[in-house]
């Protein structure tokens, strides 16, 4: 749905433009969107709080994939940080190019006060982190708004995205697709 809205805002058809396999083009489109969001924040056409509310609404929408993607949402903390950054921006303070932008992080990095499971049920009972991982501390200092933690494969041992301990994400392939057969049954390659 968000792709359709983005395509409509840009005046293009969904699917038109660079091929999805062209990583450079996809990255350029994503960064262009980040630049546009940052420009809207700088111009006062958008507030960080509104951006966070939009992200939280999408993440918790009934029938959406937020429950499959996020293992934890930090709604209250994200709103509080967004309000503080909006006040700073109103008085002319901009901490960095990512200041005020909402981000999500994999459940692989320590966030102070939260249990880092790395996608494993074995680590659920572990004590909460007493300090942020360096990358998390840098993101926070730069003004990024961490809205939540996302699902991942157990201990980041796979690029497929399957995790038996948490909700299974929908895969963009079905049993009838060639990609599924290659992943599920490597010996049966289809041509």
Unreliable residue stretches: 1-23, 171-191
Radius of gyration (CA) equals: 19 Å
Describe the global form. globular
Q: Mean pLDDT across all residues, rounded? A: 75
Please list the strands of the largest sheet in the order they lie side by side.
1-3-2
Largest sheet: 3 strands, mixed
Overview of the molecule:
With 191 residues, the protein is mainly α. It has a domain at 47-159. The protein is 40% helix and 8% strand. It has helices at 2-10, 23-43, 48-59, 66-69, 75-90, 134-141, 178-184; strands spanning 70-73, 102-106, 145-150. A 3-stranded mixed sheet has the order 1-3-2. Helix 6 (134-141) links the parallel strand 2 (102-106) and strand 3 (145-150). Helix 3 (48-59) runs antiparallel to helix 5 (75-90).
SSE layout and pairing:
Layout: H1 2-10, H2 23-43, H3 48-59, H4 66-69, E1 70-73, H5 75-90, E2 102-106, H6 134-141, E3 145-150, H7 178-184
Parallel strand pairs: 2-3
Antiparallel strand pairs: 1-3
Outline:
The protein has helices spanning 2-10, 23-43, 48-59, 66-69, 75-90, 134-141, 178-184; strands spanning 70-73, 102-106, 145-150.
């Amino acid at each position: 749905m968000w792709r359709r809205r983005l395509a409509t805002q840009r005046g293009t058809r969904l699917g038109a433009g660079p091929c999805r396999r062209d990583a450079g083009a996809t990255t350029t489109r994503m960064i262009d969107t980040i630049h546009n969001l940052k420009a809207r924040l700088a111009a006062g056409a958008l507030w960080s709080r509104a951006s966070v509310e939009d992200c939280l609404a999408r993440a918790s929408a009934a029938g959406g994939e937020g429950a499959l993607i996020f293992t934890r949402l930090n709604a209250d903390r994200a709103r509080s940080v967004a309000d503080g950054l909006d006040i700073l921006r109103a008085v002319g303070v901009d901490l960095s190019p990512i200041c005020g932008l909402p981000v999500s992080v994999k459940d692989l990095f320590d966030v102070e006060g939260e249990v880092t499971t790395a996608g494993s049920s074995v680590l659920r009972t572990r004590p909460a982190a007493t300090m942020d991982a360096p990358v998390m501390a840098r993101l926070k200092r730069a003004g990024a708004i961490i809205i939540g933690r996302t699902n991942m494969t157990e201990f980041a041992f796979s690029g497929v995205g399957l995790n038996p301990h948490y909700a299974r994400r929908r895969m963009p392939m079905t049993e009838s697709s060639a990609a599924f057969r290659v992943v599920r049954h490597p010996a049966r390659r289809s041509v």
